[in-house]
Amino acid sequence: SKNMSNYYFFFFIQNPTPNREKGLAMCRKLEQLSKLKIHDLYDMLEEEFAHPPVNIHRILDKLDVEYNALDFSFVDGEINGVLLPQQADMVMGAVAAHSREEFGKDSVEITVNIKDNYHRQRFTLAHELAHCMLHADSLKDGRLELRTSLTSNDPKEKAANTLAGEILIPEKMLKKVYSNLPIPILAILAKNFDVSENVMAERLKYLKMGYY
Q1: Least buried of 34, 150, 170, 196, by fewest C-beta within 10 Å?
Q2: CB–CB of 113/91 below 8 Å?
Q3: Which DSSP helix (H) or strand (E) runs through 198?
Q4: CA distance 117 to 46
Q5: Which helix (H) or strand (E) holds 107?
């Protein structure tokens, strides 16, 4: 949503192979992620969804997805010929899928903006994971995509935001916490799930649950 994102870019890097021109291989790790649905995550990582807050870092560890933080303001003005915004430090997240046949292991790596606050970084990690699960096809051809605030209404961005909410704030878990509160106060719910009030408000709105 416009409150959660200013700039996103997503890039896929694959080492050239003789079969690349034939469109042979998506990164195997990316392909595995693309087959996951939210209920698969809940089932596979049941202990991580037992109680709030959801530990997105541990989820990524268990999915064997690498992650790090970067000061994007020091990134050069372009990557693979694609220009970055002038305000490069406003880039919030990136995901790179690497096909490394010579090492016998493919990898997916998520990068967040080191200058962003803790809650925004958590959401970005979930958002980028959501793109891997939902939109792997747009990453597999080796192209770099640049997303800005002008694309905040893009259906892919909305879908990734929704799935990120499902990861960080599972409906069943939220309703349990919600029902145990005498008054569903937004700040308390956000604190329970270790997310920003904006993210919690969007999730409650999506689930048609009121709050104060």
Answers
A1: 150
A2: yes
A3: helix 197-206
A4: 28
A5: strand 107-113
Q: Are 101 and 17 in contact (CB under 8 A)?
A: yes
Which of the two residues, 183 and 103, has the higher pLDDT score? Answer: 183
CA distance linking residue 51 with residue 67, whole number of Å: 23
* Phi/psi of residue 10, nearest 5 degrees: -130, 130
Show the tokens assigned to 100: 């490394």
pLDDT digits (tens, 9 = 90+) for 116-173: 899 999 999 999 999 999 998 877 654 444 444 555 677 888 899 999 999 999 999 9
DSSP-assigned letters across all residues of 33-71: HHT--HHHHHHHTGGGGSSSSP-HHHHHHHTT-EEEEE-
CA max distance for the chain: 63
At residue 137, the pLDDT reads: 82
Q: Which two tokens stand for residue 99?
A: 């096909």
**What's the distance, Cα to Cα, between the start and end of the chain in Å?**
21
